[in-house]
Amino acid sequence: MRNSSDLPGGPTGPVFRLPNFGKPSRGRIVVSVVVGLVLLLVFSAKTMSSFYVNVLWFNSVGRSDVYWAILRSKAELVGVFTIGCFLFLWVNLLIADRLAPLTLPNTPEDQTIIRLRELTAKSRGKLRIALAVLIALMLGLPASSQWQEWTMFRNRQAFAVGDPQFKANVGFYVFRLPFAQFVVSWAFGALILVTIITTAFHFINGSIRPQDRVQRVTSQAKVHLSVLLAVGTLLRAADYWLSKYQLTSSTRGVVRGALYTDVNAQLPALNLMVLVSLAVTALLLWNIRQKGWRLPVLAIGLWVVVALAVGTVYPAIIQRFVVQPNVSTRELPFIQHNIVATKAAMGIADVAREDTTFSSISTADVTTNDAALRDVRQLDPAQMLDRFALDQGLTSFYTVNDLDVDRYSVDGRVQQVLVAARELNPAGIPNRTWVSRHLIYTHGCGVIAAPASLATEDGRPSYIDLKVTKPQIYFGDRLGEYAVVKTSQKEQACAGGNQTSFVGDGGIKVNSFVRRVALAVNFGEFNLFGSNLITQDSQILLQRDVRSRVAKIAPFLHLDADP
């Protein structure tokens, strides 16, 4: 018998064969699983440690309910939006596959499509699921950022007042509108992506054949895509409808709220765009039974032009040429709405206005009212901030970040006093080692005070000594770094004071191996685990900036510039 290589057409060179590794042994499987778990642990260590440290911190301030409520809201959003997106995309991909032509013409242009269909025939279902899962996670995970809007929507309440333009309850704007706008916006973005992917599937399936001059899109694919586009225009109509109510917080004019241009130009434009969107929706559905795409394309193009002209250009023209030359007359009624709403929000709607006349003041009047006039403020807090820091900052690692006016009993009477905290300045810490930054220089020291009505001959404050039994300040205005207290390392003493340590339970106790590992991983600092200065009684103080502390405990609060 001749060798196959000697036969005509037989192989003329060496034959390469893939190595046969055989069935993997149980030991190899175990090693692979262990290596996979170790890699998973390494890559997720930062996330897990951050979660654990957050749990410890919220427990330390007695508000673990806030943290778990936030996580629950985020999980609900991710679950609902991810599952909803997965089902919507998977159903559309399934429809696209079911509507695919059974056969395709054997033309050169269709050969690639035919081969691709044959290649994915057995794994088509898995491909749909994998793609739907990937896109759903990509769109669903970011929805967690709207947890606060969702929480407020879920716990919505009504107020006892409505807005003057739409007569809608104010609770609608506070609790419902923000989340409703997010849902519509998210759904529209998801629909665009799903439509693009579905169109690509129709092309791969052969339902869309640009080279076919007779029928570039099958009737089944046309129905499918037309319905998706119609849903998109409906969502735009909903978005325009909700945008009307957003005008009540417009920042276009001199005050916040719906002003002349918003009411007389932007509002009619939004109403028109709602009608145009509904008309385009009807045309897309009506075109299902028609031939071609010319009418829907023209309708969508006209829709875009109208949106730009009526929704953007027209209001800008009204604002520039009608409102700006006559602001005082055009905006007056709407400014009055703003004033009324502000009074209602501040609880001063019933305050009565009275006109008062003043006569001339004599020397006798001043002498008679000396007790009231001697407390008149002579020092301006804004101008005294730097002076306080220069006079009373003491060292480079202390600073004065803010100056406030309060009332204290000085010389037997209550009077206005400028008061400031001598806070820690991390940038001024000498010998900036880990120990000095986090174990020694852990706090500010004492307060600086001066009567607001007194000044020296050269205009300086006349400082007074307020008796403070515990001058250490561990939490302040701009403290971003953590501090480890109750360690075997002595903390920096306040000027003229004795060496002291932190007293209280305001931090996370570093009293276990797991906690020290978690803290070290979270902050990327080995010393939190390996330092011998940290004892079983030690605590770590986190979120020492007052604003960030309030933001974590009560994220629904919005603080003013000087809380």
Task: Describe the overall structure.
The structure is a single chain. This protein is mainly α and about 575 residues long. The chain folds into 2 domains: about 70-325, no CATH class; about 370-555, no CATH class. It is built from 18 helices and 10 strands. The protein has helices at about 25-60, 65-100, 110-120, 125-140, 145-155, 170-205, 220-245, 260-285, 295-325, 325-330, 330-345, 365-370, 370-375, 380-390, 435-440, 515-525, 525-530, 545-555, and strands at about 400, 405-410, 415-420, 425, 445, 445-450, 470-475, 485, 510, 540. The strands form 4 sheets. A 3-stranded antiparallel sheet has the order 2-3-6. A hairpin with a 2-residue loop joins β2 and β3.
Q: How many domains?
A: 2
Count of distinct strands: 10
Q: What is the percent of helical residues?
A: 40-55%
Distance between the termini: 98 Å
SSE topology string? HHHHHHHHHHHHHHEEEEHEEEEEHHEH
Strands of the widest sheet, in order across it, are 2-3-6
Strand residue percentage:
5-15%
Outline the biggest β-sheet: 3 strands, antiparallel
Summed over residues and divided by their number, the pLDDT gives a mean of 87
Using only CA atoms, what is the Rg? 36 Å
Number of helices: 18
Low-confidence stretches: 1-16
